[in-house]
Every structure is written in structure tokens, then in C-alpha cells.
Fold these 2 entries.
Entry 1:
Amino acid sequence: MTMNAMTLRKTDTDIAADAGWKTICALDDIPVLGARVVASKSGDIAIFRTADDEVFAMHDKCPHKNGPLSQGIVHGRQVTCPLHGWKIQLDSGEAVAPDVGCTKPFEVKLVDGQVLLKA
Amino acid sequence: MKKMKLVMIGNGMAGVRTLEELLKHAPDLYDITVFGAEPHGNYNRILLSPVLAGEMTLPEIMLNDLDWYGDNGIRLHAGKKVTTIDRVHRRIIADDGTEAEYDRLLIATGSTPFIPPIPGKDLAGVLAYRDIADTEAMIDAATHYKHAVVIGAGLLGLEAANGLMLRGMDVTVVHLADWIMERQLDRAAADMLQASLEAKGMKFLLSKQTEALVEGEGGRVGAVRFKDGAEIPADLVVVAAGIRPNYALAESAGIYCGEGRVRGIQVSDTMQTVTDPRIYAVGECVAHRGIAYGLVAPLFEQGKVCANHLANFGIGRYEGSVTSTKLKVTGIDVFSAGDFTGGADTEEIVLHDRQGGVYKRIVIRNNRIVGSVLYGDTADGSWYFQLMKDGQDIGAIRDHLMFGQNHLGDAGHKGEHKAVAMPDSAEVCGCNGVCKGTIVKAIQEKGLFTLDDVKKHTKAASSCGSCTGLVEQILASTIGGAYQAVSVHDKAVCACTELSHGDVRKAIRDHRLLTIPDAMDMMAWKTPNGCATCRPALNYYLISTWPHEAQDDPQSRFVNERAHANIQKDGTYSVVPQMLGGLTTPAELRRIADVAEKYNVPTVKVTGGQRIDLLGIKKDDLPKVWKDLGMPTGHAYGKSIRTVKTCVGAEHCRFGTQRSMAMGVDLERMLFGMWSPHKVKLAVSGCPRNCAESGIKDVGVIGVDSGWELYVAGNGGIKTEVAQFLCKVATREEVLEYSAAFLQLYREEGYYLERTVHYVHRVGLEHVKKRVVEDAATRRALYERLLYAVQDYKDPWAERYAADAAPALRAPFETLEA
């Protein structure tokens, strides 16, 4: 059997793991319009799930005063920080105007109902 | 799909605001072309006065510069006056021959100054005061000439006079009426204003009718002659005798523009012209239900509605505005609303401090405010205006009405009420540390017009809100004229809907809505799943209207109500276990001490509500902490029942007349699990010495020898408000029933985030008494509905730490690993 054939038999998840992706949880472990917190070597990361089952990840720190964004209310593609109500764009980590600031986003994707994170 | 063509005639504030709203809703729906007669972008006409006075420059008052049009793909024909609307071929033609076709046409031609037909009105040196060109001509005249006469002592006339005076001219204001600004001010306020302007050097000729403008040297105006034969020199005459809707173009195209006194482009509540459904109109050129508005706020409201319909959303109607005038005349704040003249059937409350430059007059009919005039200190204008619009009975607050909404311990900004007198460095918003200068700068540089805009950009008045009146006043004085307060009660819940809290509550009740998606669907929410403002409100309205039936959505609750603990600034939580009535036991204290040590709790504190607070607990530890405490939740985190505070009472105290501790325990036990529009705090004192501070609680109970006195709608917070006496009852059972009935009424009628004090202010204590005190059947029903709502409420802590707790309840407290 050649190496090629072996690789072909790998599941998508395995391939993802090869490229630095890590399986975190099932999509259903994150509430709709909610978030979960992932402990990582670069600090806590919040993974959000929108009403359309899109997932987004970013540092769990508001650019304003480090509020835990994972605890905010998710609406559309935004989350409102629980501490002082800043709105953060889930896809970019940018604060919604007129506020200015940015939280570091991380790559995240869905494969076979599993949430994969590159952190 | 090919875009539709939208053409706008007129490039002023109301029209461009409409386009901005439209671009927010439907950025790609139209190909937009704008024709403006002036060779500029859109500028803030209200700020022409500061430009004339030399306080601001033209670039500073631009709202939309030419780049804005380009960036938004709008074709701007600046300096081209439209002369023809060809409705048959759906095109318009400008004076230089430019043509543009339209699918929708928006007419926003504004107003034109009214020039009375007096001989000499066409002489050189006779100007109106309307646009940049007029302003520049006045500035130019001020450098060459000496004598200026302003005809008309309305707001515009006085501001023109003030500007010319500051530019060194000798200015006389001529007015037909007996006192200045007679449309906005009564005689006393007008006299004060006149005196203060005279002190600066302005001259006045009142009750004077102009007969002719007399030609001087070189064909320029030289003097003004009056009916009584008198004549005064004038090298510059500014006519400020009012404005008229500019509807000539529309009328020439056969669009109905009214008759008699009600002239202006006639529009429906959707801002469509009544003549041609493809043609809309907004702004000063419009007459809506017989009224042509000249203030910026109603025009922006019109723009908002118009944009909504242009975007094909088809919701929202403009139903007219009740206007008040809150403005700055040459640096002095004045406010008026309603029938401030009064008549035989009215009474009035007057405060007149001539030396201090403050005058306030409130006109009252049948215990209701029908009008008011404020001079010098206008911070309470919007409060009086609100009371007037709501038709609220002011009997109960009559004795402190004059001193304003804030006169009771208004913490945080040192009782400052006069925005004008404040230095730029003065702190306005104590919560967010925002100074007056910061607010003024944001308003000017960002072109802000509404309180909401100012809140968003500066954060002032966005936390506790106690400085709202002051911020409004600063806004009013900074944008010069015509700031208008919007009624907080009719205001939309948030930008996701046009509906007010009252509308939403009613729809949920009338249509038996049980879930947030159903509610949003039914009420045509504009966003797919709302925002952090409307979702918690909707969730509350659903569960309070349909207890045990509506679906409680944790994701629509603020984090504290999801975590059942209070989030702190560093992201940790505080835990307050239940201690009914503030009573605890040695065993509980021992467990609390053990928990504090086991989890390294950094701070242990006794709260204002007589509870023990463990601060600094990590979210992951919460369920373990709760389990180790073995006590139910103390509800210290929700828009819900918080605490019932008690004094020692007849159980031990030598002065006690009633058993206040037992009463407090019973009340708190009854209310366990009660969600409410905002937090609810109670207190029970055993005698009138009132050691439990019942006088500043949502429900305060005071034991007297013959029974219990009940007080409601007190507040110890942002603005200390003394609770109002509701009634006296004899028995323990009555205390429970009356208290519960009041709270249930508040739960059913209060708006989300409205404390009991504001709720009772809004509906009036009489309304509450009728249902809770006078009508036994209603009271009983309210009481039973409350008991039903809290029935079977399970301790949320125990539910989450239980060994067999559902994963969905446990998961929020568990961190995942990467």
C-alpha cells in the first residue's frame, strides 16, 4: 500500500489535525447564539455560534477593558461585551463604530459537526 | 437586477438624513442622484449663527462633504436648481438643462424666507438669513458698513443681530409684536432676554411697523422708515420675518400643496405625496396633517419613516410631532412648550430670579401641565414636556415640581444644572468621566443631533442616566437651535424595531406570543436575532406575560442571569447565598467561612441588603461553591427580587411594635423566583424609627402599633426617591397580598429596565391605588397571578450542581481544552 492510499483513507478530521487544526468539541456543545471558552497556551479563546450555525473564535478579551466576550449576548455576527456594552464583530474581532479597537481572531471551522480550532 | 433610480431635489439636512437612513437599510437598492441649488455639500444650517458670529468656520459645519457623495455612489449636482418635474416622463430638468429620470422622486426643497412686501425690499444691502451665501454677504457687509437693522426678533433675527454685533456693527432689532420671540416666550422671559441683550449693546424697537426701506447712496439701502414716521440709518437690513415651505416647484408639477393657511407639499403618514405615489417629500417643504415643521427633530423623524418606505420595508408611520422649543439664543438657554400663555382656567407656578437670570413658569390646568417656559436653566424642560405629553396628574409632586426632577440628592455631578455656566473641564457624566468639553467637541466634530448619538460617541449619560438632562441641555446649546427631546415612552425599544416597549408588551399579550423568534417574526423585527438591548426585554415580557408557557431563553439574558452570579470587572463572579430577611445561623456562617477558605475567596463583604457576598470566584468554580455552601441562591444578580431587609423588630427591640424579621422572611420567601422589569428591593421595619430604611425601597413596610404601613416606589440609587404611602393594613396576610399585588402590577405594566419609581411616575400613584387598594377583586387576582408565576421555582444553583444536572445546565461552567 502506498502512502498516498493511506492518506486518502484518513478522515477529514485527521487531515485537519495534520495542518495544526485541533478538534475542540461538537457544534452542539455550543449553545445557539452562545459561546464556549477554550483554554489555550495563548490564553482563553471564545468560540461563538450564530443563529445560522456559523462559528467564530477570538481572544476572550474585549479590547476595551478585557471583559470576557464569551459571556456576552450574541446577535447577528456580533457579540455585546457584558462589562460595558461594546459590540465586537465576530468575523474580524473589530469593535463596532463609534468604538475603536480589535480583539485577535482565530481560525475556526466546522467539519462533520465538529468544531476545529487553529490556535 | 437593474437598480431603481432615486432622484432627490434639495440637498439639505432633512433630505440627506433620509438618504443616510436609506443607505443603512438598503445600500444597493437605488442609483441615487441629488440636485442642490447651493454649490456645497450638506451643511448644518443651524450652525450658520456661530459662523456669522465668528465662533465657527464653514468647513466645521459641513455634515456631508463632497467625498461622502462619491463614497456612497451618489451623483451630486451641486449648484443646479431644478426647474421642472415632468411626471409623465418621470424626469426632472435643471436650470442648466441637466435632466435625470427617476423611479422614485424625493422632494426636500426646504423653506424660503418670507420677505414682506415693503417698498425697497429689492435694494442692495437687503438680505434674508437662510444660507451660506446670505451669511457670507452679512460678514462682508460687517467689514464695510456701520449700521445694521434686523427686522424680526425671532430666534433667527436675534442670532443674526448678535452675530453682526460681534462683528462690530451697530445693530437695531425691529419687531412688530410687543415683546421679542413672542411665539416661544412669555413677556417676563422675553424681557429678561431683551435686558441681557441690551446689556451687550443690542438696541430694540418694539411694536414698530416698517413702512419702507429708503434708498441711500449708490442704490444701496440707507435707512428704515416706520409707519409712525421715524427713520433710522441702515447700511444693511436683514429680514428675518419667518420662513415659508418652499413648494413652488412641486405645485408647478401639479402636486397638491394645500390651500389657505396650510400650505406645503401634502404628504401622508408614509411621507408619500398625496398626489403621486412615486414622489415622496420630507422636511420644511412639507405639510403633514396640516402642520409644517421647522425644527430639526421632527424632520429627522420624517426622514426615518420615508427611508423605511423607500427601502421597501413598509413599516413605520410618521404621525406628527408635539414640539417643544429648547434652544440657545445668543448663549442663553430658553425652553418653551405647549400653551405657556394660559387663560382664565389655568393656574401657574412661577420662579423668577431676575438677578440670577433664571425664570421658570409652569402652566397647569386640572392638575396637569399644559405648558411651560424656562429661561436660563432649562435642564428640566424635557421632564416638564414629558409630563405634559403624558397628561400626568402632578398633584403628588406639585410641591417640588418647580425644583426639577433632580432636586432630590442627584448624585454624581454636584447639582450642576446650568450647562452654559459650566466650564469645559466640568465633569458631566460621573459614571464614565466625561467632561462638558468632550461632549461639545463630539457634537461639533461628528455632527451629532440626538441624545442617542451623544451617548454612543461619548458614553455620557449611557450608564446610570442621571446626567441625561444636563447632556440634553449641552446638546441643545451646542447645536444652537431646535434640539428636540423625544418622548422616552414612545421611543423604539432599540434600532431593531420601530415599536415602543408598550407596543411590544401589548403584541405579546394580544397574540399570545411564546418565543422570541415568534415575537420577532410577528412584530417584523429588522434584525435576524435582535441585539443585547431588545432580547433581554423580549425575554422578560414573554415570561412575565405567559409564565410556565413562554420559553425562557438563557441566551437572551444578561450573563448574570445565566450564570446566577454577578460578573465583576475582572471576569470573576460574586456569590451571595440566600439569607431570608437578613437572618442566618452559626452553621451557615461556618459553611460560608469554609468555602471562603477552600476557594481562596479574596473578599468577603456584608452587602447593603444585609447579605454576605463572596467576591472573586472563577466561573468554573461556581457550581462547586454553591454545592459546598448548601444554601439556595440569594438572587443578588438579576432583574428580579433582590432582598428584603429587616430591622430587629418586636422580637427583641424594646421599641419594636411589630415582628419585622418574621414579616421580612415571609415576604422574601413568597417572592423567591420573581423576575421583574428591574431589580426589586424591599424592607420591613418594626416601628416608625424605620431602621431598615423602608422609605427608599420598591416596597417598604413599616410596623405601627395598629398594623402595617405600606410604601411603594422608593429608590436609594442614582436619584434618591422617597417611597410614596400606599395604604395601611392590619394583618400579616394583608401585607403579603398588597405587596404582591403591587409588584405584579409592576411586573405586568412596567417597561424593561424601568424601576418601580419610574413606573409609578409614569402611570401615577392613583392608577396603582385603584387596582391595589380600592378594588379587592383586582388585588386578589394580581396576588394570585404573582403566586402562580413563582410557583414551583427551582433553586437555580441546586439545579446546576446536582449530580444528574443536564449537560446544557453544566456546560456554561466548564472550560474546554485546546
Entry 2:
Amino acid sequence: MTEVDTETLEVHPITFPPQVLARISPELSLQRHLSLGIRPCLRKFEEFRDVHINQETLSRYNLPDELLPTANSGILGSNVLKCGKTFVITSITGGIVEETLPVETDNLGEEELLDMSEKRDEISKYASVFPIVEVERGRVGAPTDEEMTVSQKLHDCVLHSGIIPKSALNVKCGVRTTDTEGNKTVFYPDEQEDDVTLKQLQQQKKWAYVLYAKIVVFSRTGPVFDLCWNSLIFALRNTRLPRAFIDERATDLTMTVRTRGRSATIKETYDILCDPKKSVQLKLVEPKIGYASSYGLIDLDPEAQINDDEDEDMDQPSSILLADIDTEAEETCIHSTISIIGDSKGNLSNVTLVGGGAKITPEAIKRSLLLSKQRSSDLSTRL
Amino acid sequence: MNPEGIPFEFPDRVFPGQLICPEYEVKQQDEVDLVFKFNSGQGTRFQSFKYDGTTVNAITATLVGNVKITETTCDSTANADQKASEEKLQSQGEVRKRIVKDMVVSVAQNDISETKCNVNDDFANNLPKEDDIVLTRVTRISLQRANVEILAVENQAVPVDSGIGSNGSGIVAAGGGSGAATFSIAQASSDLGETFRGLIRSQDVRATERDTVKIIDSFKPGDIVRAQVLSLGDGTNYYLTTARNDLGVVFARAVNGTGGLMYAIDWQTMAVPSTGATEKRKCAKPF
Amino acid sequence: MNVQDRRRLLGPANARPIAFSAEKPVVEEPEKDQDKQESISLRKGLIENSNGSSLIEVSSKDRQFSLMASVYGPRALRGSFTSMASISIQLQNGSQEKYGPTQLREVATFLTSVFNAVVNRSRYPKSGIDIFVYLTYDRDLSQSSSSNISALIPHCITGITLALADAGIEILDLASGGYHNGNVFSFIKNGDEITGFWKDEGVSNDISDSLEICRQSYIRYKSLMVSTLMQK
């Protein structure tokens, strides 16, 4: 209602259907919803989307046993997470990398030295996964900024939260022997402690598994980091590592390789293969596992309120904390965000605060930490 | 579902490829032959079928939805044609009179027709075509023209996938950013090629004093403009006009988008209620 | 690939993918049971940020797979004026990287030619319709010959048709197809018109047999599609 020169002008409002208004002015649409105490997705302010998960359906270890020997699927763990209308498919695949350190050295001094330096660097004890996030949005070509930043953040957060100790990825290599009749058998040293003869076959090499994660997000309706993180954690929790072995003939094979006519280098190649049947569970540090949730803060615009009673505006809070940001309107209009990875006991492994819109108050942070605990305890019971 | 006594049943709900009706149908009524000529409208198409060795033209559905039949009032030329044909037939010794009724058969997608009863002709997924009213956002202005991107066709469903969020051209949001945060938004949304673009030439801004139009006093980047499609234009742009009272800026924020919402106080001024500041725009029907 | 990909986290360069020791496959007696009764479930409209989408899950005795099709557009095209929509179809591997890029592109080209004939393209000037098919999972339960990509084509066609109908894009008819001995036929109009023919293997003299078998499965898929589309 506008006043010009004491003369009152009645402004004829132009009305639009809600979905058109949401498109042409998401900000106004969001503010109108919030003033009614509801969000555009019809959730309450601190309400999370429900999460459904589906474990292991894609994993090779979900196959019936008789098919395992011939299955060529390399998926070691998987998760399908459905959150609201968005769903995330995570599949964990693996690789094997040769480490430069020998498995057992007689040189105790060197080992001690290594230990000392490792203690200084806490992070080097832990490994991470290499995620590739793909958000399906009907486009082809190079990954978008979002896909790159989410991938990098997932990688860093897994590393720094210390979920996967490096020791969990060490390959305890077995040896395949061929007896005189041509029958091949695989021995794993750690399975048969008493067998002394196998000790001699122990290789002077060390291998480690490398874990890759392919995370595909379908039906993106809002920010995806927390969905990707939760899906990745669920997938890692059911990841199984295949037992690996090398052939006894290869235990100390060396080859001379000439690279580009320059100096001859010696490369030792081992044909390391994985057992199609036997596998061990990936050992995660359970107490360090946390789940992610996101929050946003938005200032209420006093002009956009729909209130018959003008006085009611006075005791309304000026900014609102919204949990689990979703929908286009919230994503484009909320500039102050809080992203938390933590467990149900309140142990945090990552907190990201981004200001830019509403002021992030200590109360808002406290509140979101509390909500994050509740969300984590809910998610951790899903397995 | 059988208006004006068409002598056969129309299917109620159809799926693509389903036959709806033949091109012509005759009904004998008292002294006259009622001839129904069916034309294909939205969501339908003529297809020829071989039936008993003859080729029959028939209307089939191309969408899932409910069949709607509307009678069109024939314009004068069509009437003249019909009269001519009637005369011709009479001269051949035809005694019976014949009335031709033109019907348009269309298919309306269910979810829209049921939820929005107040709007008449809304079909999902219609591209802007001539004479459509569209809602656009101004992306760039120059002395001669304003470039806009088309956000929605009025009275029609909003396509889902050309939004900001779903295609990641928004500002970085919680926990990692989205697509084009390295660009400014205006550039990103036009450079990603997501939306249909249009342009309003300065002579199409208003109907009177067309030579003295200043684009800068009519539109600012970020304004939401209600416009009408003049032509499909070239490969890139639709040509739009706001030369009508009900066309022009419908939403604008003061101070180039940083201030509050403005309301039109006359046909070329908008004001911010809280501060009283005014800015010039070509407003759509303020009163 | 000699250019290093800096946009993705690829992990250590010297890592080798896990290779499973190839055990000699269990020699199965080639049981040619013709009652390959596959059960299909169709769903539509599950991908929120596309205009239309569909999910197909097929499980038969020797194969289980599911694929998702999503339709984006009509979208604006740049460049010169086009009076008809141009259709592009992309096939994407799911979590198992099962098929090579050339194989996928070949199938995508075939599907594009099928749908050029099916979509009412003149209704969409100046625009492009982008269709994505995501092969979510694909699991062989036996080493039968039907484990190749050709057997997926009819389901791709069904999925895309369903997604197009869900998106409200005008199509002339519900297209689908069938697979038999390496031959794929795609039909419209109750099997009276063939919109595409794909041949990958097998001898050429059994085409007419295949045609009839493919037509039967087309009619089966079509009735499934109709019931999926017509339910509220």
C-alpha cells in the first residue's frame, strides 16, 4: 500500500500461480512461505527429509556364492540413499598400489624412525577414498564446479576424520602354489599361523588397497554434499576387500626395463590377483564415523510478510534456522550456511560455516549442533 | 464426453498413439446432414491409417491426458468456402441441407487441468509461440534493445528443468557450490544456454512515442517483465513487445536489485514503500 | 590418455585396478529353456530435476538389470534457426563400467534415429530435447549370449518412450521393440510400422522369425506402458 501526497492509491496486485512466482521471484516466494511458518517443500523449519537406504545391492558380495567365481563386477561395496526426492548411488571399487616400504624389515632402527615421524603427522596414518561425484542434470562434458568441490571435500573429510586407518588397507598377500598335478591352491599366511614353510614365501613387497568411490546423484533438488557424505559412509561400512595373492613363481621376480633409451631401471613386477571368493570386511574406526547435515540461516524480510495483524511482527525472530536445505528457492536465497559432520554423541569431525546472508549467531550454531546430534543418532540406526 | 450429439464415443483418457476420431463424421438429423470436421489441436496429430485397403486420416493422441473437444467459430473465409461447396453439392442435385461444424480435438495433460481450474488453456511444455504472453527476466540492456531470458509462458506449466537450482547456476550454497559460481549470475544463466532468450527492441517498448523510448528508463537488468511474443525471431532470440497497457515490468527491486521490492505508482514510475524512493520503469497496468 | 585429468580425484597413478583371478568358468550345459519369462516393472516420474523420467527393472532367469531414462527439454538451442527439435540421446554406464564408449555411442545413434521418427518434432522449433539413459545395473546370471548390449535396446526404447510421455513431449505412438538372436526391431502402430532395425550377430536368414518374436514382445511392452501411463 503506497501513499502519494495524502491521496491513497490502491495498488492492484498482479497475481501469479505459486509455481510461476517461485520461478520469477524465488526470494519472495520463500519469504512468503516462511512467514506462514512453513517452507516451500512443506517441511517445518527444523524438519529433515526422511532417508531410505538400500545396502549392498550392487556389490559383488551380494551375488549368490556360486556366481562369485565368474562374476567380473569389481564393486566392493555400495549404497543407494534416497532422501526426499533425491537419490544417490554410491559404488566403491578398488585398486592395488605398491608401497615403497618393505613389509618386514630387520632394521628396527629404521622402523622406529618411521614411527616417530608418523606420529608427528597424524593424518599420514589415515587413508582416504577417491570419490568422483556426478550430479545428473541433463548435461554432458566436464565436471561442474559443484562436482569438483564436493569430490574434493569428501576426500578431505574422510582423510581428516580418520575413519580409514592405513593399516586397514594393507594387503595381506597370499601365495598361490601349483602342485605337481597342476592343482592351484592359495595360502594366506595370516590364516595359517603355524605353517612355517609359508613364512619363506613372504614377499619383500608391500601393497595397499586404494578405494575409489563413484557417487552419482539423481534428481538433485538442493545441495548434495551431506547426501553424498552419508551415502559414502554407508557404502564404506559394507565394503569388503577381496583377498589378494600372487603366484609363488613370482615372489621374487625382477625384470630389467629400459625406459626411453635412458638408464636401465629395474622394475619388479608382480602379477597380483584377487581371490574371487574370499574377502574381509573393511575395518573402519567406528567411533569416528559421523554423519553430515546442513543448515541455513535466513533473515525474514519484513516487507514480504503476510500478516493481517501488523503488531505480530514485533515479537517474531528476525532470522530463522532451517535444517536440511532443499529446493531451488532455499538454495538460491540462503547465503549463510552451516554444514556439520558429527556423530550422535556430539563428536565433530567437520564444521563449515559460510556467512554471507543472515548473521550466524552462537545460538544458531548451538541449535544446529544439537540437531546434528539427533540427525546422526537417527542415521546411525539405519544399518 | 460427447458434446453436441457426435454419434460415437470419444475416449476419455488417451495415451500417445491412441486413435481418437476420424477426420470427418456425418450425422443425419431431421432434414439436415450434420458434418463434423475434426481438426487436430494441442496434443493430437493427423496420421494416416490403412483400413480395408483405403487410407484413412484420423486424429491420434500424442500426449497422455484427457480429450477435450471445442467447437470453433468459423471465420468468414471458411464460411464462404463451405457455402461454395454447399452450392456445388446442391447444383449436383443434392436435396439435403448440410451444416459443417468445425471441432478442435486436443489433449490436456491431467495434472494441470485439474489443479488450475481458473486458467483455460494451459498445456505443459509449450514453447513460446507467437502472441503468447511470457514472463522474462532482463539480462542485459543497451541503447537499442533489452535482452531477456524467458522464464515462463503465462497460463502454462513451468518447465521443471530450466531453473537455477536444478542446473547449478546459483550462488554457492551449503556444503559445496553449484555450477557457475565463478561467473556472475546473469552471465552464467545466459551463457550456459539453459533458457530461451528474447529481445525487446526500443521501438517495441511502448505503443506511443516510440521514437523517444529510452531503454534505461524502461528496464533494468534483473527486472521481471511481462511481454508478448512478436515472432520466433532468429536462432537465438525471440522478438518480444511490451507495447500494451498490461505488459511491462511486473517485479523490480530498487537500486539495481539491491533494494526492496518496488510497486508501480503510475505507468512509468515505481516506488519503494519503505523509503519512498522512485525509479523509472515501463510498468504493466498499475491501476 | 596423456593429458592428466585435473578435474577429478584419480588417486595414485601407479595403482592398478583389482583383477580377479580368472577361474575357469563353470561349464554349464547350455540349457536352452525357451520359457525365458522375464518380469518387468515400469515406473515413471522419479527424477525430479528432469521434465520426465522412467525406471525399468527387468529380471529374468539369466539376467537382471535396470535402467533409468530422463528427458530434459525442450531446451534452447544456439545458432541458426531450426524449425524442428533436434534430439540427442546419451547412454551412460552405471556403477559397473560394463560397456565401452564406442558401444554406447553406437546404440545411442541407433536410438536417436528411432526417436527422430517417433517424436512430433515439428511442434518444438528452435529447441533440443536431451535424453539420458543410465544403465543402473546389469547383472548376468549366466554366460548366455544374450548378455550383450543388443538385448538392452528394446528396454532402452521402452524407457525413453515412457520418459517422453511422462515429460509431456508429443510422440506419434508408443514405440518399443523386441530382441531375438542379435536382431532388434523397433515398432510403432501395433507392429505395422518398423522404426528401426539393429543387427549385431546371428545369421541373416532368420530375420523374419525374429520379426514375429520381436513384435510379440513389442505388444507386451506396449500394453505394460499403457497401463503404467494410464494409472493416476
